[in-house]
Specification:
about 50% helix, extended, mainly alpha
Amino acid sequence: MKPSTDDKDLQGEGNYDATRRYDKAAHEFAQSGKVEPAARAATPKDDAEAQSLKRAEEAGRSHSKGEDAAATPPKPRP
């Protein structure tokens, strides 16, 4: 049975209303002037926290299929 596209409570990848709400909230936050203070507040408070975050990042990367091409600058051609 094919799910109805009229279902307002549709969740998951098909939740277009949730996507629009998220996009609007993200845009408003980006325009609010609160990004820099939030970024400063998110920095590690000490070396132990920095090391913990680094280990968590490495653990996450170990499950990755590789770097995102958009996140890595292109290599210069010879």
